Amino acid sequence: MERVLLWLLSELMLLTCSSRIPVRTECIPHDLLQRIHSSQMNRTLGSLLVPFLLVLASANIPAHAASAKNQRLLIYSIDVEGGQATLLVSPSGASMLVDTGWPGSNGRDAERIETAMKDAGIHQIDKVLITHFHTDHVGGVPELVKRVKVGEFLDHGVNREDSDITRKDFAAYIAAIGNTPRHTLHPGDAIKVPGLDVIVVTADGEHVASVPGIKPEANPSCASEPKWTLDQSENPRSVGILVRFGKFSFLDLGDLTKPKELDLVCPNSPLGHVSLFLASHHGLDQSNSKSLVDSIHARAAIMNNGAHKGGSPTAWQSVSESVGAKNLFMLHTAEGSDTAHNSAEDMIANPRGDGEGHYFKVAADRDGSFTVTNTRTGATKKYPAD
Hints:
Elements: H1 2-16, H2 30-37, H3 45-58, E1 73-77, E2 86-89, E3 95-98, H4 108-120, E4 124-129, H5 135-138, H6 141-147, E5 149-155, H7 164-177, E6 182-184, E7 190-193, E8 196-203, E9 206-207, E10 217-218, E11 240-245, E12 248-252, H8 258-265, E13 268-269, E14 276-278, H9 290-296, E15 300-303, H10 313-323, E16 328-332, E17 348-350, E18 360-364, E19 370-374, E20 380-383
Parallel strand pairs: 3-4, 4-5, 5-6, 12-14, 14-15, 15-16, 16-17
Antiparallel strand pairs: 1-2, 1-18, 2-3, 7-8, 8-9, 8-11, 10-13, 11-12, 18-19, 19-20
């Protein structure tokens, strides 16, 4: 019995030293663990429990860390007031943050990212993907890297927009990441996130014609789609990704605009049907074409709009008609719109004004089932396996 208890004690000590549990004291030395296993050790079991309990008491252990290993993909749609910051954490613990929100506001957006990280039980971000070089997507990088260790940055290459503010934001981004590895993405690239299948479907104005494992489908909506004018901003250069986790899939196209949406899904869509769609461009009507939203047949959508940015009536209508109004979640009430073009209050994370930074947490299983939790209300909507 004593040998069993000693073994259990050593395993618990190893747990407190794991990287997923932040301990505010020195980890138990390896030689002590060897002595615990040794039959020649002269200490009593009671005396061994004392240092272990002291270490355990000094640890800040998330509730889920002591439980069985998480087997679900977690997606956090973080409120950065009309920008984007979307955190993905795989069951392996690997993480990727898509965009970083705005600069300024006393580090508000970086703090909100840290809040989501704490909920997920992670202490660094393995990859930060910048969809494009607009302030509301890349502006939060300088503050983020002051607070959080980042493994590498991913983006579409160089700034393509002829504007002073975008040149300034791009320069600030490059300066902030310093010697952190940075890689340029191209359509068809696979992003290595252990436990997930992540493929780049758009980047720098180009797109894939096919996705491994998905048969392209004819898109009947293309015939009636208007011809949209291509803008010369960074938006149509957005990196777009399709994330697959078993039968669950998540589509995030950044701020891709309608002409490039049509290039991607017309006359044939390579994306297949997706479980969850991050409504493009914060729900602005320059994006979210009928040809796109109807072709992906999303079961639910999240609109990362602000109180006074995004959530335009036209875009809301297009996405709502595709997924259903009861499956369209919004980070904010679009105060410039009307009641008919806003989701019900229980589907909105921050229903009044700028709000308090409430976010949506998605938990997905390999069988295609997933849940969406509104952290303001605590209510969770369940989507069963297909």
